[in-house]
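Sync notes, pocket subgroup
Present: LS, DG
LS reminded everyone that the earlier model was apo-only. Rerun requested with 3-methyl-2-oxobutanoic acid included. Inputs:
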Amino acid sequence: MSTAKQVSANKVTTRTLAQMKAENKKIAMLTAYDYSLARLLDQAGIDAILVGDSAANVMAGHPTTLPISLDQMIYHASSVTRAVKHALVVVDMPFGSYQGDPLEALRSAIRIMKETGADAVKMEGGAEAVESIRKIISAGIPVMGHLGLTPQSINQFGTYAVRATEQKEAAKLLGDARLLESTGCFSLVLEKIPAALAKETSRTLSIPVIGIGAGSDIDGQVLVLQDMLGITQGFSPRFLRRYLDLGEQIVHAVEHYIRDVKSSDFPDEKEQY
Ligand code: KIV
């Protein structure tokens, strides 16, 4: 009997995303960090799942993405890949796993690919990250770039406000996007930048450009799952559309359970042995 993971015939690959851009089909991407929710996203037919370092925020409650470690990212990513048969799984390289040295970056990316079975990695930064990105791509590992608001640089930015509103930063972003494409990135995420700049970037590049807070004239969208399901509290940026108020529903369900336990209503006769 084969022990190989059962992968669906229509598994999304980096080539599928390229094809989708060529055919003008929008790419839908969401984050996931655990088996149960990743399984539901895959069942729903999501094109791509990002195991984002936003796990540091939504799973661990850190105010920034900086504290999450490579081992923790590998734990989250391997939980996700165990669930996914269809979607492309991309894993964020965490802060400190690639910035210093291209060889260390390569070792980190190889650990992610070997220990999680993911399809690709994502890295923040343009020219400053390009040597590491080149090294990783040369080992046959697909890399998704990430420009605009790059949360691993929050201490340098000092704010989560919209990036590249000034001409100088916009020109750098466009130059970095071209550089990432020519270095071999298969795709690019643009976070929280003006829609017009995202549109220009997406039209300039032949690789798929996926936005979060970057408007609609772009090849795809990504959101943090807990944000769009209404689980995250106290976070409502303009770009976020909430598709559920799951946080409220969970609180109601738990209140109901507490009442039932306290009143001895749960379990009833049918719920016992
Ligand atoms: O970590 C993350 O969730 C991300 C998305 C916001 C793109 O990088």
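DG: Residues 31, 50, 52-54, 92, 189, 191, 212, 222, 224 surround 3-methyl-2-oxobutanoic acid (CB under 6 Å).
LS: The chain has a mean pLDDT of 96.
Action: DG to write up.
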